[in-house]
Amino acid sequence: EVQLVESGGGLVQSGGSLRLSCAASGFTFSSYVMHWVRQAPGKGLEYVSAISTNGDRTYYANSVKDRFTISRDNSKNTLYLQMGSLRAEDMAMYYCARYSGTYRGVDYWGQGTLVTVSS
Amino acid sequence: DIQMTQSPSTLSASVGDRVTITCRASQSISRWLAWYQQKPGKAPKLLIYKASSLESGVPSRFSGSGSGTEFTLTISSLQPDDFATYYCQHYDSSPYTFGQGTKLEIK
């Protein structure tokens, strides 16, 4: 069974940093592109970042570019999102998601981890 | 970036109704479109991929159609469990943007 379990969320002050983790199981993690998607309270889904299977290619939304860093450790089946210079508008539920390729798109999501930014 | 526009934003319907949600892309995305259902406090769940392919385990009352720039999600006969928010997402080229969502409410 495919499982994605996020952790690392919490309360952080504006300007602070936080590292999110996503532990993957039930599939060959190193074979899949992985995404981070966030959802601010009461709002829609926002595509945040993505990373290739071996980590050599990454994508960032303009809203997080130069502040967030996506990475992965295939030996640990874990995806990361290092978040810095956090702002009030970064407050959201952060989901990791598995991208199954051009045929199926994003097919599995974790349950999310909540990031709260206080001023 | 490709923009995705969903309509309507809110839809009120009754159990047994047939409903359709539309998603338009700002440029052609072939058939690289997925539909998700999200319930409060839960992660999105894949319903439809490649515009019209039904994800395993999803009831057959859900169907998707379209190609290019215009796509639809149809629920043939609404059930109580279907009241949720629905999102489209393209995966033609990065960034894989989402529509703004359609909240399906009980009339």
Strand percentage of chain B lies at: over 45%
The tally of strands of chain B reads 10
Question: Quick check: average pLDDT of chain A?
Answer: 97
Can you tell me the residue ranges of chain B where pLDDT is under 50 for at least 5 consecutive residues?
none
Largest sheet of chain A: 7 strands, mixed
Instruction: Give the tally of β-strands of chain A.
Output: 11
Oligomer: heterodimer
Report the major sheet of chain B. Answer: 6 strands, mixed
Q: Output the radius of gyration of chain A.
A: 13 Å
Number of helices of chain A: 0
Q: Identify low-pLDDT runs of chain A.
A: none
Side by side, the strands of the main sheet of chain B go 2-10-9-4-5-6
User: Beta fraction of the residues of chain A?
Assistant: over 45%
Care to describe what's here?
The complex is a heterodimer of chains A (119) and B (107). With 119 residues, chain A is mostly beta strands. Helix content of chain A is 0%, strand content 54%. Chain A is built from no helices and eleven strands. In chain A, strands 2, 4, 5, 6, 9, 10 and 11 form a seven-stranded mixed sheet that branches. Chain A has a four-stranded antiparallel sheet with strand order 1-3-8-7, with no helix packed on it. The model of chain A has no long low-confidence stretch (mean pLDDT 97). Chain B is an all-beta fold. Chain B contains no helices and ten strands. Chain B has strands spanning 4-7, 10-13, 19-25, 33-38, 45-49, 53-54, 62-67, 70-75, 85-90, 102-106. In chain B, the strands form two sheets. Chain B has a six-stranded mixed sheet with strand order 2-10-9-4-5-6, with no helix packed on it. A four-stranded antiparallel sheet of chain B has the order 1-3-8-7, with no helix packed on it. In chain B, strand 4 and strand 5 (45-49) form a beta hairpin. Chain B is globular. The termini of chain B are far apart. Chain A binds chain B through residues 35, 37, 44-47, 50, 59, 61, 95, 99, 102-112, and chain B through 32-34, 36, 38, 42-46, 49-50, 53, 55, 87, 89, 91, 94-101.
